[in-house]
Specification:
The chain is α+β, with helices and mostly antiparallel strands. The protein has a four-stranded antiparallel beta sheet, covered by helices on one side. Helix 2 crosses helix 3. 22% of the residues are buried.
């Protein structure tokens, strides 16, 4: 945890909201890399997502896998679309990382 000077409750809440938005915008701490035009895309079925926080957790788990360029998560459809480097990872390895984060995932069709 980061030491911060004491703030008024309303200022602290605003600071926390900005910190979360900054993390989401930055790709959840790792940052995403623009995939090359020929990068394959894996579509993963992800169970148990119900909210935006779930999507952030799934995206973070996916982008922390070595070889993943970016991930887009659709909570309503229960899907994650991930661009990856096939010489460094596989759709199954990405699904396993998401499953370890608490959301059972498996490679799926479009």
């Amino acid at each position: 945890m980061i030491d911060r000077p004491r703030m008024r409750p309303r200022a602290a809440a605003a600071f926390a909201a900005l910190a979360v938005l900054g993390t989401v915008a930055a790709g959840c701490g790792r940052g995403t890399v623009a995939p090359p035009p020929d990068a394959p895309e894996a579509v993963l079925a992800v169970d148990g997502m119900t909210c935006a926080s779930c999507a952030v957790t799934v995206r973070t788990a996916a982008t922390r896998v070595d070889g993943v360029y970016d991930a887009r998560v659709d909570v309503d459809r229960g899907r994650a679309r991930v661009h990856y480097d096939p010489t460094r990872t596989t759709p199954q390895a990405i699904a396993e990382a998401i499953s370890r984060a608490g959301y059972p995932a498996r490679p799926a069709g479009p």
